[in-house]
Amino acid sequence: MKRLAGVLAAGLLAAGCSSGATSVAAPSSAPTSTASTTTAAVVSTTTSTALATTTSTTVAPSTTTSTTLAPTTTAAPTTTAGSTNDFLGEEVLGTSAGGRPIIAMHRGTAGGTVVLVVGVIHGNENAGLGIVDQLRTMPIPPGIDLWLLAEMNPDGVANDVRHNGNGVDLNRNFPHDWTQIGEPGYWEYSGTGPASEPETQAFMAFVDRVQPELTLWYHQDLYRISPSSRRDGPLRVRYAELTGLPVLSVSGGTYTGVAATWVRNTHTPAMSFIVELGPTLSGAEAAVHAQAVLAISQMVVDGEV
Questions:
Q1: Helix axes 198-210, 259-266, angle to 10 degrees
Q2: Is 286 strand, coil or helix?
Q3: pTM to 2 decimal places
Q4: Three-state SS string across 91-128, please?
Q5: What does the pLDDT read at residue 252?
Q6: Could you give phi then psi for residue 21, rounded to 5 degrees?
Q7: Using the 8-state DSSP alphabet, how is residue 184 labeled?
Q8: All structural domains of the chain
């Protein structure tokens, strides 16, 4: 979601997570802004031999049109460090406003329950990258078809700003309940229209294709998970229990055109929710969160929600 000027102090990360991880200090300072991007039709192709798998990527010139991106192909399964031959490929979904690739990694059980984890949508709220890094190599339980999108806003990450290269808050740019918010330079500027940004277009085409049953988004630094009476309510509660995050409502912004809301409403009964981290996240804390991701994903696989 977004970051607010006043950062709420939070409690310690629970040591009682399934991985037995260490506690996490409560946040003490506020976060900052986000980044930007532009899409292009990008096609990844794959060649395989008996000994190895090689993936080559060709990037078409960047555009700002709203045309649907051509589906990309994934690499044939191979072995990655820390995995058990569960790497299913990596693909470029499109390009940012600044011409940077938007890359998704695929691993786990092909054809299983599809789970999507987005590390960053606001470029200066990038602690989620540590969680995605953990999920790249840790063992994935059978039945989870896992997609990892580290940076939906690669320009924002590169520039350490909230918006994309066009100055748009991508988390206010999605078509569901989109409204005109502010003008260029405003912290929640929603763009010239719904899905006006190439990053938004690329993400929408990707989700339409892979149909995740659960999508998780990382933001900073309110240190909480908002409660829910929907199907994903038990998942939010369990994630909070495993990580020590409080379950508290989020307020302080204009919440229209939000990415998580678009996923839920466009792909019902898909579940999609935001995890608000604190100002910083250590490697040990990132591992706790990554284990929590797998734990609630297993709940979905087992039909507990």
A1: 30
A2: helix
A3: 0.74
A4: EEEEECCCCCEEEEEEEECCCCEEEEEEEECCCCCCCH
A5: 86
A6: -80, 170
A7: T
A8: 42-46+68-74+83-301 (3.40.630.10)
